[in-house]
Structures are given as C-alpha cells and as structure tokens.
UniProtKB/TrEMBL annotation:
Residues 221-237 have a biased composition (Gly residues). Residues 190-239 are annotated as: Disordered. The keyword Signal applies. It comes from Paenibacillus oryzae. It comes from the Bacteria. Residues 1-27 form the signal peptide. This is Copper amine oxidase-like N-terminal domain-containing protein. It holds the Pfam family Cu_amine_oxidN1. Residues 209-220 have a biased composition (Low complexity).
Amino acid sequence: MRSLKRAAALTFAMVILLALLPAGVWAADASKPTVVKVKTQAVGLVFDGQELKLPENQHSFIYQGRVYLPIRYISYALQQTVGWDGKKLQVTVDEPNEKELAELQKQLMDNSSGKAKPFKSVTLPVRTIKATLLFNGKAKALPEGQAMFIYDGAIYVPVRFLAEAIGTEMNWDPVSRTVNGESAAYRAQFNEEKDPGKPNGTSGGTTGNEGAAGENAGAGSQPGAGGGGGGGNGGGVVPVKPTYEQITANAQSSLESLRDGCKTKLIGMAEKYLAATDATVKAQIKAEISAEVDNCTSQFESLLSGISSNLSSNGYSTDIIEEYRKAFEAEMAAGKALAGKMS
C-alpha cells in the first residue's frame, strides 16, 4: 500500500513538475479562450545596458516557468515597431524607420527615468488568445506548450520567445529576478568600445571566460595579468582550456542534479497534498508546488544560459543546448498527455 501511494505521489509530482495541472490552459480545448489567474511579480528589465520600468497599468508575471511581458512594450524596448489587426487577430513586429526609431528611443528614455514605484503584487485573470505573429513579414509560431494572453487590451507573450524571434540575446537571472537583453548591434558596439583597436599579442587587461555565468570558474587566469611568478618565456600561468567533453559532462551532471532535487521536493509536496483532507490546506500546498515549479524551471534556464556561455567562450558549438531543451520539452509533452488522462 505504501509503495502504491508513493507511486501515485510520484505520478502526481511529475505532472506538477511540468506545470501541467488539469486546471491549466492545456487541459482545456486549445481552440477556446481560457481564463487563467496569474500573480504579478516584480521583474527587473535591462535592455542594451539600460534599466527600464514598465508603464502604469502594465504587468509582468511568471507562468509555467516563463516570464511574460506586454508584447508592445517589450518590442519597443527592443526598438521594434508593433502593429495590431483586431479583425485578423494579427500582431506585426517590424524594424522601425528613422522617424519611428527616434520616437522609440525617446519612449525608452522616459521609461528609464524617474523613481520606480513600490511594487504590489496583484492577481490578474488573463485570457488565452490565438493570434498570428509576424516578424518582419514572416510568421513565427509559439513553441508547443506556450501561450499568449490578453489582459486589459494588452497582449502578453513569453519574453524569451519574442527576444529570440527578433535576434536579441536574452538571459534570466533567477537570483535578482532580472531579464537582461542585448541586441546584436549593442553587443558589437560594446565589444568595439571595450577593446578599440586592440593589437594582437597584448597581454593583461582581460578577465578570461567572461560571461560563463560561473561555469568552469578558475579554469585558468589570463597570462601576464600581474607580472609575477613563473619561469622562462615571460612567465604567467597558461590557461587550461576545458574540453568539450568536460563541459558537457559537467552540464549533464548539473542538469541531473537539478532534476533529482526538484523531483524529491515535489514528491514530498505531492504526498502531503494527497494526504490532506482540508480544501484550504490542499490549496496552500498546491500554491507551494506551483512556486517550486517556477523555481525549478528558472534554475533550468539559468543552467542552460551558463552552459551556452561556457561553450561559446571556449569556441565550441552550442548545438547541444537545443538537445537539452528538446529533452525538456519532450518531458513536458509526456506530462501533458498524462495530465489529460488524469483530468
């Protein structure tokens, strides 16, 4: 009996881990609008090095581990124009002309100035919406399992999807709860300003493995960083470049550790949920489980970001990142099917 109960808890926990509770959007007919209650959360916004704040009456929230922001605002932050055709249910995101770009930059200045108001979380009844997304004339669909929402006339989309569709590099810091986006133009300009006309063979002045998000820290210091120590040939410690196999092995270990840790926590929570008889207690445990799902998914995204940076900084392909993500999405699809059978 004990083993059966734990098996039931494991099944329940895995469904929750994938954020696919029957009460969610994906248990319903996807062709029909569904109302989902979300709780707004304070999210830091930094785009091209500029800290921004959301306009009045616009919100940020996390749903199924993804950060959602208003598509019009975030497109403006990425310096793109946005159009909406209510009859066709169509959103267009395009490169601005010179006049439009000047106006967007002015709006960004307005949104980056002034003191931010104290944040107060509220619960919003957002509604799913089926709309076509066109980026510079080309349609791009949300990945399976993701949704668009509408609230108070504003359409909300996963910020990572939107940024990557435009070509912006996006990172999420789960500690500071900050979205950091850098356009290709900004990255190119920043690198040029950082090392203008740097001649070959210059020693010192660099930090090594920048952007590795803490992965492989201490894998070696740049030579000539302080002059001392060392024998012949100018001294300095020669950095040891990690192999591709070392990086991916460490990545696999970290991902498995995260999965096991999350599963253990969620099984314990699921057992408490199954044992509870009071509706209020069950609702409280369910909310705690939902928060843990968000936390686990945020850690997963943070790990992928660090792994990708580590591979890139050492000159390796990042194709395996897509494999990790596909495996994660496959588990989500399996959980979705299981949730459908249980609902």
